[in-house]
């Protein structure tokens, strides 16, 4: 197998990753402030149990619009709020407040959600979120990330706070286990994990793990055919690595658990130089409404994003 990096035997889940990464930021950046919408509160007991942290840690409960306005006030006071709850409640419900309080006032802060797309599959459509990345991307000067392991989360939050950005990080619960820790200079906004000659395969979010496994199995019959690139920063998109790969393969497939509006696929097509000739395909949620209940795998299959759908699409392209 010609993956460029080894696999972790026991990768950290996103909940553990989130607590560790945020605690590190909290300790190393004195202006950072944690603001929660009840989710994840007990994971930070080491912080909120200390009296000296009472002005840097706030759990506002299920008051999402209030949470955004309160955080904007902290940012106006030159603090850096890290704001967290479940994806649809963090981005879609209080979107106007984010746009006005942070966007129009040009304030900095990092919104970190958990539960991309249909991660909370058994809780139904009120907990699905498939346009969050597009919504936050519409705010001028915003940075948008979709992360699926510890290293990507650490990169994204540190990039946000060190550069005082307004940013959104979607944490996906379906983690992958590629270990890039040995390469300290790797730009994790967009990075290649496998070389190939015939297809540039771009993947993001909760679909990374299954795509890696499918690609690994297909290597037996289609050796060195698929070049696999992971995108963790959606906006601004690091297009150079993608274009370099396309110059070689002339074929593009993008797999992402997001609607087509504001998708990576759409952004790539907008950034490719006019006149460049290549074949392009995508597997995403199109603009479907995710209205069902079930397991994560059941909903992935229902909306054409299962491991079998990924496998069939790759083979279809390689056989052309």
Fill in the keyword field for this structure.
320 residues; alpha/beta; Rossmann fold; 7-stranded mixed sheet; 5-stranded mixed sheet; 12 helices; 36% helix
Account of the 3D structure:
The chain is α/β, with parallel strands linked by helices and 320 residues long. 36% of the residues lie in helices and 19% in strands. The strands form two sheets. It has a seven-stranded mixed beta sheet, with helices on both faces. Helix 8 crosses helix 12. The longest helix is centred in the N-terminal third of the chain and has 15 residues, at 14-28. The relative contact order is 0.13.
Describe how the helices and strands are arranged:
Layout: H1 14-28, E1 32-36, H2 45-48, E2 57-59, H3 64-76, E3 80-86, H4 87-92, H5 95-104, E4 109-114, H6 132-137, E5 143-147, H7 150-162, E6 166-171, E7 190-194, E8 199-203, H8 208-218, E9 226-231, E10 233-235, H9 240-249, E11 251-255, H10 264-271, E12 279-283, H11 296-302, H12 307-318
Parallel strand pairs: 1-2, 1-3, 3-4, 4-6, 5-6, 8-9, 8-11, 11-12
Antiparallel strand pairs: 5-10, 7-9
Radius of gyration, rounded?
19 Å
Low-confidence stretches: none
Quote the distance from N terminus to C terminus. 24 Å
Question: In terms of structural class, how would the helical and strand content be classed?
Answer: alpha/beta
Overall geometric form: globular
CATH architecture of the largest domain: 3-Layer(aba) Sandwich
> What is the count of β-strands?
12
| CATH topology-level fold name of the largest domain | Rossmann fold
Give the helices and strands as they follow along the chain. Answer: HEHEHEHHEHEHEEEHEEHEHEHH
Describe the sheet with the most strands.
7 strands, mixed
State the fourth-level CATH superfamily of the largest domain: Thiamin diphosphate (ThDP)-binding fold, Pyr/PP domains
Strand percent estimate: 15-25%
Note the quaternary state here. single chain
CATH class of the largest domain: Alpha Beta
How many DSSP helices? Answer: 12
Mean pLDDT: 89
Could you say how many structural domains there are in total? 2
Main β-sheet, spatial strand arrangement:
2-1-3-4-6-5-10
Portion in helices: 25-40%
């Amino acid at each position: 197998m010609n993956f460029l990096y080894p696999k972790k035997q026991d990768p950290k889940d996103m909940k553990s990753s989130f607590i560790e990464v945020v605690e590190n930021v909290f300790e190393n950046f004195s202006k950072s402030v944690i603001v929660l919408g009840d989710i994840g509160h007990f994971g930070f007991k080491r912080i909120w149990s200390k009296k000296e942290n009472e002005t840097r840690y706030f759990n506002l409960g299920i008051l999402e619009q209030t949470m955004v306005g309160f955080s904007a006030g902290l940012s106006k006071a030159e603090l850096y709020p890290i704001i967290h709850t479940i994806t649809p409640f963090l981005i879609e419900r209080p979107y106007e407040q984010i746009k006005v309080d942070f966007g129009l006032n040009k304030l900095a802060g990092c919104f970190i959600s958990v539960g991309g797309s249909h991660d909370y599959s058994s809780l139904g459509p009120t907990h699905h979120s498939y346009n969050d990345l597009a919504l936050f991307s519409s705010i001028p000067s915003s940075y948008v990330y979709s992360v699926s392991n510890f290293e990507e989360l650490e990169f994204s939050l540190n990039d946000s706070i060190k550069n005082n950005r307004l940013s959104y990080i979607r944490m996906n619960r379906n983690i992958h286990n590629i270990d890039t820790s040995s390469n300290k200079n790797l730009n994790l906004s967009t990075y290649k994990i496998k070389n190939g000659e015939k297809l540039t395969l771009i993947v993001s979010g909760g679909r990374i793990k299954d795509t890696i496994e499918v690609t690994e199995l297909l290597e037996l019959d289609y050796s060195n055919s698929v070049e696999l690139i992971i995108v963790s920063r959606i906006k601004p998109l690091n297009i150079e690595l993608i274009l370099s790969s396309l110059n070689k393969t002339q074929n593009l497939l993008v797999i992402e658990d997001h609607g087509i509006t504001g998708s990576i696929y759409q952004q790539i097509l907008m950034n490719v130089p006019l006149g460049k000739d290549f074949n392009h395909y995508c597997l995403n949620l199109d603009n479907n409404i995710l209205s069902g209940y079930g397991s994560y795998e059941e909903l992935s299959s229902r909306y054409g994003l299962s491991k079998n759908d990924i496998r069939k699409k790759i083979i279809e392209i390689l056989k052309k």
